[in-house]
Design goal:
Length: 652
Amino acid sequence: MKKFMNKEIVQAILIADNNAKNFRPFSETESVALLPMVNVPMLDYALEALNRSGVMEVFIFSSLHYENVKGFIKESLASPSCWAIGMTVHVIGGEGCRCFGDAMRELDSKGLIRENFILLDANCVTNADLKFILAQHKKTVAYDKGAVATLIFKQANTHVRTGSEVMIAMDTQNKRLHHYQELSMDSKEINFEIPLEVFTHNSEIALLNLVNPEIAIGSPSMLSLFSDNFDFETRADFIRGILINEEILDSRIYISLLPRQHYARKVNNWLSYQIVSNDIINRWTYPLVPDMGIKCLTQQYIFLKNNIYRSATANLVKVGLRENVVIGNKSAVGLGSHLDCSVIGSNVLIGQNCRLHYVFIFDNVIVEDNCALEFCIIGSGSKIAANCELKGVLVDYNCVIPKNTKLMKSQVFSSPLKNGKDEMTRKISEKAYVIDDGAEVADDEDERNHPASPKMGKLTTTIADSDYSCSSDESESRGCSPILDDANGFLSEVIDSLTRGLQEKSNPEYLKLEINSSRYAYNMSLREVNFNVVKAIFNLPPIKEPSRNISVALNTVFDQLKPIITHYIRTDDAMMDCLKALEDIFEENEFVRSKMSQVVHYLYDKDFITEDIILAWYEQLDNDQHKILKQTLQKFIEWLEQSSDGDNEETD
């Protein structure tokens, strides 16, 4: 009992509202952490990453939009969101806080952090399991009491800079940091000033160019150092201050480099927003991908080839979807429109003959006919009237762009600008005030001394392939989603559990407990569980190696395991997962392949899956990739449609 009471609670700090100036006009009225990225608020990605890393208590610090963030968390906890399971979240505000250092000092004054903690920016997207790095930091502190932080970096293969790149000097033996330098936006920068003593006082030093996702593991003493040193305003100030005054402060910083397969990147401007969105759609952030239900416990999208994610409720009529497209809930795209590398939110209406390339549209937007949009962000509630051409334009919330408008490299606000900027704007409608990028003047000296934040643009082949490259063999064999050892291990355990349960006629409730235990051991999402449970059932001996006909084999298994099926396959999304699993079974099991029509019919007759889900699944099967499967199912689908028509006539 005493051991249980003394169990350490894993804590984390999330800093919201960083880099707000880089996300105008949206950051004027809402926290940057709540901006949607691939139709999910950025804060959700950070919270999900912490939840998957075993964090139990999170403190979100927000100064600019405290009430917005607090309301969002309250609403998310009521939903509930995936990350809300087993994790307590507090929102802390500080009106007088103007920088990162002030936030850390405020947290120190409240005395909320009791142990080593994870420090993460709310705009960071990562699939890394941070609990292992936390454990390593504890080991470091055990032999060096002055270890105040372990900074986490990621090696990148691209040479494009977004403002998160750094060059460090590190001792290769103990991973201790000896030099830290933030790199400029100029990718041609080649001159670096490194103190000579870094090399003369250390025998093995490595110089590394890295991406800084701004993730760290901190010791409790890290917060007190901010309180004792008011010149620590940014993370960079803290790092440089420790390196310069290591002996005086008796403090040291260590480094942890994420392995190649782990993703981590901070969204600090629109270019990085575009790059990270592209990486999410291309599944480099797996399992934080659109069809895995990041925000909620249900599947939101049907995942199609060429990285097309389509909501089952979206309405598309003869639309061209090239690649890397996400279309949200209840959105509609008109006849003849073409979309490429774009994200469409919920309840969006796009008219006919529109062209969208690298366009990110938030919820409840209307784009009328014959519009051409490129490298644009369109805020919620806005309307783009017919025949508009926008390139490199940021459209604020609730704007109305009139017909035949042509804009390039501009920001559009829904109301007149304040702070004496009226003379820089031009009014094009009652809810559209335009300011060109070149016309905007910096608000303070700090902005004037720093180059403008990079904007979205055409991604080179190198960037489009992400920082997270695979070997030539992996590239050739890589399908739409990664094949993970964890998924295979989970499937194997479920097959073993169900096989033993079938032989021993075990209580289904015990089998559910075994499956759920395996789920948490392998960190599987609900969608992965649904998918693999169905695959496991069709890999059981009576079905995989039948000595009788398929109906008898199915009855043998389903009569005993029906409680398992109905437990996992009970929603529309779960039914779609079930049918997706059958696609794999069709390729793997020759006997079931020839009887697939009977299998689907059996599941329909037993009410495991509904008619609407079967028809929706059949409709989204690719004519080329699933040609044989569609042919096998054709007669059953025709019968199902005729049966449905007959029922409708009787109702009439």
